[in-house]
């Protein structure tokens, strides 16, 4: 399956793995890249030495293109920006900020840059900053989200910019991928579907909750703080929603204390009571663990077949 994104990134399938904090490490990123997609290591707030080690371990798994995500408001952003150059990372995805000040050095190093955007205005700004592509992410996805859903966001971004657009949010199989391509995207980014992969090293409890989810198993918290997050319904999520009903200085302080380190508690410890188990609305579609290669090839194959046969369905 060849699109502008496969040509731009040098990958076999136009499928990008989401940069999930505490989740997207070398096992997962290496497996996705080895299978022909683009694996991405999440930089998060980790020290540069830790991320350097993750990159090199992923390189030991595959020699195919590899991505790194940098949250630009993180205190380690400058260090990771240089690390990407030093480690010859092929692709960078960015969020939470403007990558403009790094763009010249990244481009001189031959790195492709793909910021995540949640609005047309931000997509235009990233194009002006020199981005090679943008990832238009709808609020169906897990983790930090915007307000627009994927279906209205993607075509508006496609119409607004001249660079390739990757669709993200609510995509887990070939049907979602085909729909994204018909909306004008050149590829897709998926996160939640890879939580249910054999190569995703998260806690057993996290996987159990994802595989047991239904279509209404996620909830959005954090709106009063201006940083909404989609996650599975758990005791902590319900506590957050209760405190957010009548936000006060005291309740917001309690929220901050309750959610500190909550993602790590979910990913590493499997702490059901105190963890934030981020997942998208498509979690209800996931019923079994599969290798990354099966997920990627199955998704691309189904999408291609659907697109080829779409005309015949209406004859």
Q: Specify the number of helices.
A: 14
Termini separation comes to 25 Å
- Helicity level, as a percent range? 40-55%
Using the coordinates shown, work out and report the CATH topology of the largest domain.
Answer: TIM Barrel
Q: Which whole number gives the mean pLDDT?
A: 93
Rg from C-alpha positions?
19 Å
- CATH architectural category of the largest domain: Alpha-Beta Barrel
Question: Which CATH class of the largest domain applies here?
Answer: Alpha Beta
> Which strands sit side by side, in order, in the main sheet?
1-9-8-6-5-4-3-2
Give the helices and strands as they follow along the chain: HEHEHEHEHEHEEHEHEHHEEHHHH
The biggest sheet, with number of strands, parallel, antiparallel or mixed sense and barrel status, is:
8 strands, parallel
SSE order and pairing:
Blueprint: H1 4-9, E1 15-17, H2 26-34, E2 39-42, H3 48-61, E3 66-71, H4 77-86, E4 91-95, H5 100-108, E5 112-117, H6 120-129, E6 134-137, E7 143-144, H7 150-160, E8 165-168, H8 174-182, E9 187-190, H9 192-195, H10 204-211, E10 218-221, E11 229-232, H11 235-245, H12 249-259, H13 262-269, H14 292-313
Parallel strand pairs: 1-9, 2-3, 3-4, 4-5, 5-6, 6-8, 8-9
Antiparallel strand pairs: 7-11, 10-11
